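Thread title: Can someone regenerate the structure for this chain?

I was given the following input by a collaborator and told the matching structure tokens would be attached. They weren't. Posting the sequence so someone can regenerate them.
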Amino acid sequence: MQRKSFYFAIYSLCVAHEWVKFNWVQIGFFIHILRLLS
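Best answer:
Regenerated them for you:
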């Protein structure tokens, strides 16, 4: 049972990492557009 929660924790970390990485791409893109408009 403990091993299952261990794998779940690793999976959650991977998903969170992917989400944050994607979010940074969006933020960078948004800043780039703001610079073009200003």
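Helices lie at 2-37.
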